[in-house]
Amino acid sequence: MDANRTRVKEMSIARTMAALEKNNMGAAYLPQAAEVVPTLQTLLAKNDKVAVGGSMTLFETGVIDLLRNGDYRFIDRYAPGLDAEQIRRIYLDSFDSDVYLTSANAITEHGELYCVDGTGNRVASMIYGPKRVIVIAGWQKIVPDLAAAVVREKMVAGPANAIRLDCDTYCEKNGRCMSPVCDGRNLMALPAGACENSICCNSVVFSRQRQKGRIVVLIVGEETGY
Predict the structure, then answer these.
(1) What is the spatial order of strands in the sheet that 26-30 belongs to?
(2) What CATH number does residue 14 fall under?
(3) For residue range 34-49, what is the model confidence (pLDDT) as tens digits?
(4) Would you tell me how many other CB atoms lie within 10 Å of the CB of residue 205?
(5) Residue 97's pLDDT band (boundaries 50, 70, 90)?
(6) CA–CA separation, 179 vs 69, rounded Å?
(7) What secondary structure, in 3-state letters, does the chain show?
(8) Total structural domains within the chain
(9) Does some domain include residue 70?
(10) CA distance 211 to 23
(11) pTM for the structure as a whole
(12) Would you say residue 155 lies in a domain?
């Protein structure tokens, strides 16, 4: 990326961070993905109980390896051999974590996080329970507004996750949502029941927070995650 495009990117990131802070969320910019793990090591305390939401970003930036090999009580939802009931218990135990690490589907320049879930365990823990929530997101997830956030989910994040999870959905087969627009009257713009095995079941917008600083957003200056 040349210097001019880099400057445009950095101005967008600066606007977004300022808006997040006005909405009582902490924000920091990490120019390189390699800075994520060292930064987290300063934010996590020894023996912290740490849980995570489903996120490719956490794998790509080395966060999962850090949690598995660090001095933390990691509630590992990705541990091999877990059955459905054990996973359910992990999701419930995550509400009582000291720190919850995850990503977002999109971040708006108005200072909002837009998150879309299948089971809803991620957004539930982001909303309430864990003492702190740290969101790690590549800069490519920044969009102008909520309408653009919806379209990003339909055209980028949703299809990529459906392919990753081998879901039998329209987007898994076609690489885009069957209705790739945002209708102001109906956020997801899909007829009821139109997507049989949809993973876009729960859409949550995180705007101004009542508990200042509980949510912290680390924006990475490299593309990472979906």
Answers:
(1) 26-30, 215-220, 132-138, 99-102, 49-52, 73-75
(2) 3.40.50
(3) 999 999 999 999 999 9
(4) 15
(5) very high
(6) 43
(7) CCHHHHHHHHHHHHHHHHHHHHCCCEEEEECCHHHHHHHHHHHCCCCCEEEECCCHHHHHCCHHHHHHHCCCEEECCCCCCCCHHHHHHHHHHHCCCCEEEECCCEEECCCCEEEEECCCHHHHHHHCCCCEEEEEEEHHHEECCHHHHHHHHHHHHHHHHHHHCCCCCHHHHHCCCCCCCCECCECCCCCCCCCCCCCCCEEEEECCCCCCCCEEEEEECCCCCC
(8) 1
(9) yes
(10) 10
(11) 0.95
(12) no
Is 152 part of any domain?
no
Convert the pLDDT of each residue in 101-154 to its tens digit. Answer: 999 999 999 999 999 999 999 999 999 999 999 999 999 999 999 999 999 999
Q: What region does 222 belong to: left with phi over 0, alpha with psi -120 to 50, or beta? A: beta
User: Rounded to an integer, what distance in angstroms lies between the CA atom of residue 191 and that of residue 177?
Assistant: 12
Inside any domain, residue 67: yes
Residue 81's domain comprises 3-105+127-141+207-220
Dihedral (CA of 77, 81, 82, 84) sign: positive
Contact call for residues 100 and 188 (beta carbons, < 8 A): no
Three-state SS string over 184-212 comes to: CCECCCCCCCCCCCCCCCEEEEECCCCCC
- Measured between alpha carbons, how far is 21 from 11 in angstroms, rounded to an integer? 15
